[in-house]
Amino acid sequence: xxxxxxxxxxxxxxxxxxxxxxxxxxxxxxxxxxxxxxxxxxxxxxxxxxxxxxxxxxxxxxxxxxxxxxxxxxxxxxxxxxxxxxxxxxxxxxxxxxxxxxxxxxxxxxxxxxxxxxxxxxxxxxxxxxxxxxxxxxxxxxxxxxxxxxxxxxxxxxxxxxxxxxxxxxxxxxxxxxxxxxxxxxxxxxxxxxxxxxxxxxxxxxxxxxxxxxxxxxxxxxxxxxxxxxxxxxxxxxxxxxxxxxxxxxxxxxxxxxxxxxxxxxxxxxxxxxxxxxxxxxxxxxxxxxxxxxxxxxxxxxxxxxxxxxxxxxxxxxxxxxxxxxxxxxxxxxxxxxxxxxxxxxxxxxxxxxxxxxxxxxxxxxxxxxxxxxxxxxxxxxxxxxxxxxxxxxxxxxxxxxxxxxxxxxxxxxxxxxxxxxxxxxxxxxxxxxxxxxxxxxxxxxxxxxxxxxxxxx
Amino acid sequence: xxxxxxxxxxxxxxxxxxxxxxxxxxxxxxxxxxxxxxxxxxxxxxxxxxxxxxxxxxxxxxxxxxxxxxxxxxxxxxxxxxxxxxxxxxxxxxxxxxxxxxxxxxxxxxxxxxxxxxxxxxxxxxxxxxxxxxxxxxxxxxxxxxxxxxxxxxxxxxxxxxxxxxxxxxxxxxxxxxxxxxxxxxxxxxxxxxxxxxxxxxxxxxxxxxxxxxxxxxxxxxxxxxxxxxxxxxxxxxxxxxxxxxxxxxxxxxxxxxxxxxxxxxxxxxxxxxxxxxxxxxxxxxxxxxxxxxxxxxxxxxxxxxxxxxxxxxxxxxxxxxxxxxxxxxxxxxxxxxxxxxxxxxxxxxxxxxxxxxxxxxxxxxxxxxxxxxxxxxxxxxxxxxxxxxxxxxxxxxxxxxxxxxxxxxxxxxxxxxxxxxxxxxxxxxxxxxxxxxxxxxxxxxxxxxxxxxxxxx
Lengths: 458, 458
Ligand SMILES: Cc1cc2nc3c(=O)[nH]c(=O)nc-3n(C[C@H](O)[C@H](O)[C@H](O)COP(=O)(O)OP(=O)(O)OC[C@H]3O[C@@H](n4cnc5c(N)ncnc54)[C@H](O)[C@@H]3O)c2cc1C
Ligand SMILES: Cc1cc2nc3c(=O)[nH]c(=O)nc-3n(C[C@H](O)[C@H](O)[C@H](O)COP(=O)(O)OP(=O)(O)OC[C@H]3O[C@@H](n4cnc5c(N)ncnc54)[C@H](O)[C@@H]3O)c2cc1C
Fold this sequence. Notes:
homodimer, Uridine Diphospho-n-acetylenolpyruvylglucosamine Reductase, domain 2, flavoprotein (chains A, B), FAD-bd_oxidored_4_C (chains A, B), oxidoreductase (chains A, B), FAD binding (chains A, B), D-lactate dehydrogenase (cytochrome) activity (chains A, B)
């Protein structure tokens, strides 16, 4: 067997950092989503770029699939080794290699998590802003082009990755980007590998843009009569150029579970959660102006806070929304949708999604990064009701298609993995076959995360 | 001849919008830089995507080179038809196809110029922020990944192009990106074609992100004793999170020519030109805080202005710096460098550049988009002194190499064209050969702007 041969050779390189223990395989065969477990044949824990390069040289010599693993929080089965092979777990490549406060950038290994980086940065007055809620690895976040609550102000991983070191399928090591703030030098390889979900190369170093910790932060929560009012308040705020650092939407159902789990008082209504970053003066001004806009659209039950504890409690509630919702349905799992549309279409998209859910047998909760036009619905699957999974998947498909009808995308931030593969042709047309051409160019043997993003035998 | 055959067939499609008149060929054989004229064999003026697709089908059938042309202001011979063939001039594809104020985006044909777009947008309260000074076409700006004075606040073309329609080498038409604010759907083809200088496909539609016209603008000019003081003032301002919309550097020599040509009073010293966008309160606050920082670094001779006429005069002076400098050397041409480095290295880079110029026989002027770490030196070539060109090119090469030593890039915004080709291997190593692989995948016949960005026969 070729995979077996690769494992033998890899063991010579990695020693006990190449494992085939059942517990390790099982752990790396699971995902956050509803996909059946598919363990790899072995798990490798490289410590250096050189070791990753050796892994690729050996695996390409033996046509052995290689699937990268960050923290495994991706939601579309991205990191599942569906063709078997080697799972490369980046946990041991977790060094922060350089922080340059003057240039507000840093270089990290891919196994560094977002929270570990921010803990390390605390004393510098800087922070890394992209915040997907989960304490994901920066390699995984780069590879899914992740974003989250702060993208409306600070952008997504696309905007915050300045350069990469990448090990190619044949083991060659390249560098993309530079430490300069911008570059017009050749094709944008940094962007090509960002969001490629480990199908074009393995990322071994990431140079990230950092931001100054804001001098002042103020946050607020407020209720609206309808989704439309809430979304229109957001559109107006953006148009007025009021710089929001976060602006999150919770529908009535989500507000109810968040309230129940967090103890934070929320009305039975759609809510916006907002945050402003800046100076004392500017955040106060932004807050006032936002308050006026919200009031114009019937916003009520306003609560402002510039106290760190209160703010943390608010965002903790938001970040735990996924788990709070599942906790309200013990024993159930979920399907998470990720439509993203032009913001003028968002109220309509969310209202249609709500109707679809209400007409279906499964419970569903809607929340979203409303400043980006990105909403998630979490659809609940009861394992005792076999019809739920099919119903939830049909609902999710319909919401993706609706996003396309509204000139949006089937995934604002989670990525394709396996779950969204069936919709790629619909979204991209001939451009999907161009993606397949690029994949074949960079990975002619199809050993890098096969079966994801592009067609398996395309 | 294959090119002749292509011209015959193209005439059937385009009629008199395919021309071989000498004046037209000559016009499209010139560039802003020092390259010898190289006229194409014919110039095509398509009116639609369908016509561009037909052009590519015909030209690929006959192995005929195709070079796109926007307004021809690129500075590295980008749009020169060095292998002959068809120049596709996008002037007649100059329609603004859609503006959506609610979503703050628009879709344009590639021949629309930046100024035409902003004139059209005036009544909407929106504007398109990327400003390379020259009134370039949006197709050209996309293809060079242009930026300019406002990138420090609003980003470059990379950050403002949301999606593209592209005609591939074989005539197929694809769409990249969506109208959603972000997407994790597959490989980032938008970024791949942005900055590809027409070597991977012809761009026929561009979806752009727009911004709200700021409620208030304030601008200032101030003098410093040294480059280092000026740059350190900028670094501190950025670290404090004071949001600058523009921050430009002029060295002593540039200040002198700008003063002479514009009549604006400037001391014989390095200067910073700054601008803040926001509300009345926030711009006033930003201005005060910047003033404090500048003073700390010895800034003097401060002049603030929030009057539109005064501001226009200031930026007109900055935008005309290139022409003002050439006007000070009648009959001469110039070589423009475009190094971009981590901002902590900028003072050193500029000071070294100044020394190199002072030790050389050619006069040189330094200015830059200092908030991005990007500086240009304009090196003057006297046609009567044949040694000047070689000296200027050697200087330019040295400055590019220095940018690489400082972990920067050989081009922050102008692109590669032909002028920077000899430095690509040094900047990118094996990543340059990956670029060559991508080029061969998308343009296997090497008919799209051959000889640019990647190796001619790589
Ligand atoms: C409760 C919850 C909330 C979430 N909220 C958000 C959100 O708000 N926004 C958001 O964007 N996402 C969100 N996610 C999804 C998930 O957190 C992100 O997709 C995250 O970026 C995945 O990171 P990871 O380290 O877990 O990657 P993994 O799941 O381990 O891997 C993701 C993909 O990247 C590849 N990969 C990993 N490391 C590398 C590497 N070094 N080189 C090449 N390829 C690599 C893997 O092969 C896989 O294809 C959420 C998930 C959960 C469970
Ligand atoms: C005085 C002066 C100041 C300048 N200042 C700046 C500055 O501050 N910042 C900056 O970034 N640049 C600057 N430039 C350079 C220049 O303005 C930019 O490079 C600009 O983006 C070129 O646009 P264009 O329409 O003139 O493109 P062109 O020169 O016509 O073409 C540029 C490249 O794009 C390709 N191209 C054009 N249209 C298409 C299309 N539709 N599809 C595919 N490929 C296409 C061409 O083949 C060529 O390779 C300056 C130039 C001058 C003369």
